Structures are given as C-alpha cells and as structure tokens.
Amino acid sequence: MTDIERLRHSTAHVLATAILKIWPDAQFAAGPPVENGFYYDVELEHRISPDDFEKIEAEMKKEVKANHPFERVNLSRSDALSMAERGALGALGERPAPSKFKLDIIQNIPDGEEISIYRNGEFTDLCAGPHVMRTGNIGAFKLTHVASAYYKGDEKNPQLQRIYGTAFKNKTQMDEYFAMLEEAKKRDHRKLGKELEIFVIDDDVGPGLPLWLPRGGAIIEELEKLAKETEFAAGYQRVRSPHIAREVLYRKSGHLPYYAESMFPPMELHETGDRKPETGSDTAQSAIRDPQSAVSRYYLKAMNCPHHHKLFAAVPHSYRDLPLRFAEYGTCYRYEQSGELFGLMRVRSMQMNDAHLYMTPDQFETEFNAVNEMYLNYFKLFGIDKYLMRFSTHDPAKLGQKFVNEPELWKQTEEMTRNVLKRSGINYVEVPNEAAFYGPKIDVQVWSVIGREFTIATNQVDFAQPRSFDLVYKDRDNTEKTPLCIHRAPLGTHERFIGFLIEHYAGNFPLWLAPEQVRVLPIGDEPKLLDYSRAILKELRAHQVRAEIDESTDKINGKIQRAEQMKVHTMLVIGNRDLEASAISVRVHGKGNLGAKPRNEVIANLLKSIKERES
Fold first, then answer.
1. pLDDT tens sequence across 523-536
2. Which of 82, 99, 242, 423 lies in disulfide reach of 89, CB 3.0 to 4.6 Å?
3. φ, ψ of residue 398 in degrees (nearest 5)
4. Distances from the Cα of 552 to the Cαs of 32, 186, 260, 549, 558, in angstroms?
5. What does the pLDDT look like over 403-422, one tens digit per residue?
C-alpha cells in the first residue's frame, strides 16, 4: 500500500467513526482506499445524502484534532468472532446487534491467516491495515458522493450505502485535485464528443455500441493511417478476419471457459453436411438425434488472436520466416455489464489496433524492445509525457484455475519480460495475480495533460496458445519448434484511445488529426471573392485536406464564431485585400489571427504540418 493509500485508508476509518457518532446503529462492511480516494459501505436506515456531508465532516475533524493513535491488535479467530457477535467491530463499543458484515468476513478468512483489528479512539474495526500513525497525520479530506452497492457486489446480498471521499497530505494538493476535476468536466469526452459531432450512442442500436459520425470517422482514418505506416515500416503484414467463429475455436484458444463471462451469448445454427457436432457443446446430443442437421455454436469475436493463430497455421514456416508480424484493426465484441459501460472508455464493440508477433525465443528481446519503442514514439507524437507500464504476473496458487497450468513456462516468460523491462530502462511496476490466463502482460497507463490517468493499451506474452493451436516452425536442426507470441495494441482501441485524445486535447486536435482541418471564410458574397475562396478550397481538397467553406451570408464574426465553436483548427479568412494580393488571412483556433500571408506559402505550410504530423 502506498503512502497516499495508507492515508486514505485511515481516513475511511475516521469517516466510520464520525458516522457512528451521529448514527450509532450503523453497520459497516468494507472501507478500502480506491483510485483517487476511499469509500466505506454502510447499512443504515437513514439515507445519507450530500446534505449530511457537512455534519459528518465536522465530526471527522474532531477525530483528526483528537490525534488518536491507530493501534493494531492481533486476535485469535475465536476472539474476533466473539467481538463481532457482541457488535463491537466497526463500532464505538459493544452493541445489542452483532456486527453482521464483520462476522461474515471473519467466517470467510482462511484458516491459519492472521486476523487483526485496529483502534482509533473509541472506534474498533476488523482490519489488516496498514494505517498512518495517528489520526492527526491525516491532512485535508472531503466527502464527494454517495452510491448504492450490494454487499460483496452480489445482488442477492443487502444493498448498502457507499460513502465516497478523498484525502491528501495537505489542502494545496486537495485544491489542485478538485481544480483538475473541474477541468476534466469541461474535457469530458462524452460532452465534447456530442458537441463536436464525433460519436453518438443510440438506444435503438444498443448501449456500449458507439456510432461514429463523419468527424469521428476522420479521426479514425488518421489513426489507422498512422498505424499502417508505422507497422509497414516495422515489417508488419496486414491480415483480415471475420467477426464470428465457431465455439471450437475459442475452446482451443482457452478463452472458453476462462473468458466466457466477457463474451456475448452464442448463436446456435443448424448446419447440414458432414461436420461433426462440436466437442463439449451442449447441443451435441440433439445433433446425434438428427444427423442431417448438426448444431454449431458461433460466438461474436471477443479477441483477434485465435484467428491470427489460424492464419499462422495456414502456411508452413521455417525459422527463416520469423519473426512474423500479423496486424489488423479488428472489430471485437465484449459483453461488458451495463453498469460498467462508460462513454467510449467501456464499450461492447471496439476496433483494436491489434497485432500478433510470432518469433523464436532468441528473437524475443529484440521484438519486445521494438514494440516498447513503438509505444514511446506514439507517446512523443501525442504529447504524452507521463506513462507507466504495469507488468502483471501470475499467482502460482491459481494455476489451472485463473492461469494456464504451465509453471515452468510462467517462470521463464515472466523472467524474460522482467529482464527486458529492466534493461530498457522503461518506467514500470510489477503487479501480481493480474496476468492474462495464457501469459504475463503489460498494461500501459498514461496521464493526460491535466493529470487524469487512463489505461490505453496492453502487451501480452503468450506461450500457451501457440501450443494449443499446434503452431510450429522448422528450426535450423530441421526439428519442429513452437514459436513464442506477443500480443500488442499500442493504440489500444479506437473507442478508448479517441476518448482519451478528446480529453487530452480538450477537443483542440493538432492539424493533422483535426476532424475539420481548414474552413475557408469569405468576407461577403461577391462573385470574384467566392471564386477565389472556392479555388483555395479546391486546391486544399486536391491534397486530401479536410477543408470546408462557409458561404453563408452571415457577418464574418458569426462565421468565425461558428468555426471556433466546432474547434476547426485553421480558418482562412478571405477579403478583397487578400483577393487583390493573392494572399490569405490565417486564423488558428486557440491562437487567434496570425495575419495575411501569400496564398502559396499558407497552403505549403498547411501541407507540411499535416504530412509531418506536427503537434
């Protein structure tokens, strides 16, 4: 637990203390630190609302001022159960009603695992810690909102009130955080995505299924162009795969059953012919009864890798062919729970900047470094200064359950990945028990210019699927070997990455990426002026510049205002003086009027900026 998490965990205990001072019958469940704050789940007849925050915070301040020490006490299981039965856990003392949630938690702690409580002042809670030394060490804090949450996330359990807050070492840090949140509201990709006509989510189409408007389509085209140029230069080959596949493919890859909950339900199709019913399918018996009509299950594609493995297997390979790099902007479908859907960040349909690299073990370090270098080049292009690689490893205790049961291969590939990260000098942290089921992975965390954190991409090392698919190459000694595979997606999905870029740039995209790069604004409607303006537009569009013209009869200030509202990158204002001098008056969004320049110079500068993808 980090220092800030320890501080916030301690503040959650102070929150519980304050609530009990006001509502002594409150029953508490869990109160952990979370990203950017903390929460505590509480069962209480009174419905807590933001109107209650002031009096709760007042009680919290009293507890902080009292400067009580956080004292840890280890207990036997029987003593802990006894305290819970007497209502003394998550409480200011013994109570008539047992501490029912704490009782349940204790009963589910494995035998032999240490059980401890923490005390601060009158408050005692079941807790593994750690905490700050004293309540007085807590700096600035604020309650933020209330939500509902089922105990343990199970809708069969009681619904609790979840009180959220945040805490910092001092008020300055907290003020900076809330200023960032205000700026984040202005940059919210859902808000700007609607205002700038980038995407929509329509109820008739379905939740989590974004539709891209022409402006969003323009951004997608630019990102795909960037990826294709970058990957071509790096020796990638482009492939295509369908959006659905038979159940047997995903059983072979291991996604079924490991990944079943994240996949859409299967479609059952009656297929005539000689194909045998799929092994393990629930419909196999019906096919036996009706041999003329076998029933096949098809799934919407939740990932591209099994399809790419089949492409590798379609042609014999020798070591001379490796590394082999297959790339595809593949559309995938994942059944995210409705409560987890969020704008473009959590969706059910996604277009992924995917690729699978097949290699010999000796080639792993070079290939892995090249992928990391690609990430760093993209970060530089998009002005991403702060990033972190989260290296996720497996838990040996969960082999055969959450992770493929290949202990030696896990050790080998994790050590290979760890060594490459260390030698490359890339900023990373190691996170246990979060690997993919088939190998270690790296989640790429980035921070926008205002300090918001996003997960945009994933790298995965795969030793299991190539073996499951019997992928082989002929080695130098003429024996068959199984290749290693790297799954990588530096630009993530269009949905999440564009959502990030909207907030990162606040909709003010650089010229090369702007949905509308140029708008020509003639001052008036004189025929010669309009002809000159149209000629400029025609020249720009001949060079594939996304340019439009505003020929309305509005005053020029109105035309500029409309262009500014849509965050058009460059406005070319054309008046009679410009016509006579064969010039163009240039205005850039966010910078204002840059003055008149020769027509050829303006157009040349625009084309250069777009071609070189200048920031």
1. 999 999 999 999 99
2. 99
3. -110, 20
4. 58, 30, 55, 9, 10
5. 888 898 899 889 999 998 99
Cα 335 off chain centre by: 15
What is the pLDDT at residue 177? Answer: 93
Instruction: Answer left, alpha or beta for residue 501, where phi above 0 means left and psi between -120 and 50 means alpha.
Output: alpha
- Tokens describing residue 275: 């194909």
Helices and strands counted in the chain (H then E): 19, 28
> 324 or 155: whose pLDDT is higher?
324
CB 192, CB 198: distance < 8 Å: yes
**What residues contact 334, with CB distance under 8 A and at least 6 apart?**
262, 263, 264, 302, 348, 350
Model pLDDT for residues 94-130, shown as the tens digit of each residue: 999 999 999 999 999 999 899 999 999 999 999 999 9
- Is the pLDDT at 556 greater than 90? The verdict is yes
Residue intervals of the chain classified under CATH 3.30.980.10 are 3-169
Q: Tell me if 247 sits within 8 A of 297, measured CB to CB.
A: yes
**DSSP reduced 3-state for 355:** strand
Q: What is the mean pLDDT of residues 55-73?
A: 97
More confident residue, 515 or 337: 515
First to last CA, the chain: 38
DSSP letters, 260-319, are GGGSPPPEEEEE-SSPPPPTT-TTHHHHHH-TTSEEEEEEE-S-SHHHHHHHHHTS--BG
Q: Say which CATH class 3-169 falls into.
A: alpha beta
Mean pLDDT of the chain: 93
Rounded distance between C-alpha atoms, residue 601 and residue 593, angstroms: 16
According to DSSP, residue 487 is labeled E
pLDDT of 280 over the 70 cut: no
Residue with tokens 């509902």: 148
Q: Round the CA-based radius of gyration of the chain to a whole number and report it.
A: 30
Residue 355 vs residues 330, 368, 370: alpha-carbon distances, Å? 9, 13, 13
Q: Which of 128, 102, 101 is nearest to 115 (CA)?
A: 128
H/E run at residue 600: helix 599-611
Q: What pLDDT is attached to residue 438?
A: 80
The phi-psi region of residue 542 (left if phi > 0; otherwise alpha if psi is between -120 and 50; otherwise beta) is alpha
Give the Cα separation of 460 and 438 in Å (integer). 9
Angle at 182 between CA 61 and CA 593, to 5 degrees: 150
Please report the DSSP string for 441-476 in residue order.
EEEEEEE-TTS-EEEEEEEEEESSHHHHTT--EE-T
- 518-611 belongs to which CATH class? alpha beta
- Cis previous bond, 33, omega within 30: no
Beta bridge partners of residue 441, listed in sequence order? 392, 460
Span 211-238+302-307+315-505: which CATH code?
3.30.930.10
pLDDT band, residue 258 (cuts 50/70/90): confident
Tokens 């479908």: give the residue.
333
Q: Residues of CATH 3.40.50.800 domain(s) within the chain?
A: 518-611
Residue ranges, comma separated, of all CATH 3.30.930.10 domains in the chain are: 211-238+302-307+315-505
State what percent of residues in the chain have pLDDT above 90. 83
- Rounded to whole angstroms, how far apart are CA atoms 174 and 140? 7
384 vs 406: CA distance, rounded Å: 37
